[in-house]
TrEMBL record:
Record's compositionally biased regions (Basic and acidic residues): 72-81
Amino acid composition bias (Polar residues), ranges on this chain: 48-65
Keywords, comma-separated and alphabetical: Exonuclease, Hydrolase, Nuclease
Protein name: Exonuclease domain-containing protein
InterPro entries registered for this protein in UniProt: Ribonucl_H, RNaseH-like_sf, RNaseH_sf
Residues annotated as domain Exonuclease: 103-278
Keyword field contains Nuclease: yes
Keyword field contains Mitochondrion: no
Chain positions covered by the region annotation Disordered: 1-100
SUPFAM superfamilies per the UniProt record, alphabetical: Ribonuclease H-like
Organism: Kocuria varians
GO molecular function: 3'-5' exonuclease activity; nucleic acid binding
One annotated Gene Ontology cellular component of this protein: cytosol
Amino acid sequence: MASAQLPDDPDQQALFDAPAPPRAPDDDAAPPVPEQPALFDAPETGAQRGTQNPAKTDASVQDTGVQGKGTPEADVRHPAEQDTPALHTHPTVDPEASWTEGPRACFDLETTGRDPQQARIVTASVVLVTADGDVLREWEWLADPGIEIPEEAAAVHGVSTERARAEGRPAAEVTAELGEVLAGFWREGLPVLAFNAAYDLTVLTRECERHGLPVPAPKLVLDPFVLNKQVHRYRRGKRTLGALCEEYGVVLDAAHTSAADALATERLATALGERFVELRQPAARLHELQIGWAAEQAASLQEYFRRKDPGAVVDGTWPVHPRP
């Protein structure tokens, strides 16, 4: 990737076998600088039409490989077989309580490449859990991105161009439904967790623009990647989802499938909240804090890279990168 476009998704570094960028000072050395479970249905929108996840081999709900509570309720029927969306009401979410005390959703994308400005959605998953971590519902999509899926990308997430064209749904439909589900959660005041959210949400935003669709406004986003760098800033080593799950005892057996990665993101965030009391805050407050934290983290990384490349630029906008 060019010096002005550094990798946005740590878990996508395997794409194209590109060498990982030099680790920032906060990864390698310390620089001198600083009940009841909510029993309710998820939004019954047209988005509940997910196709089979690439990791699944039949129409049944398969274990995602992530250790956690509950059994996902996934809808893998063909869109024509869907029930008519029903009106629903979420229980009241206390905006003053810690996000750990209420229901939350998590989501993940697998895509065609590392650049979020150009990448297209291949698979997407959204998982809704209760305050206790029990899985209520799972949405899954397989899209035909409309372009060739590079072999290096297919080797990571397991979906080839041929499969996407044969089994995937039109990218515009998948993007619209995914955006509708996420927007519904934010309207209800539910936080959405995404690991390195700036990658996934930038991909989603560009896809919405590409297809002339409404862009969901990310009101409440929690990002374990940003959170971990803030509370454990001098940690050595990689900060990929897999590496952090291993450190915090979250089992992730099906990495690089969107369903497994999405649920692992929630389990990781919960583990961080249990260990670091400063993260047990209302979602809205934590969302605002992450905007500043991400900017500071990017500035530190940019300073590090400029030791060798004076023109290096690291985009610290969060949770969505603007167009370059």
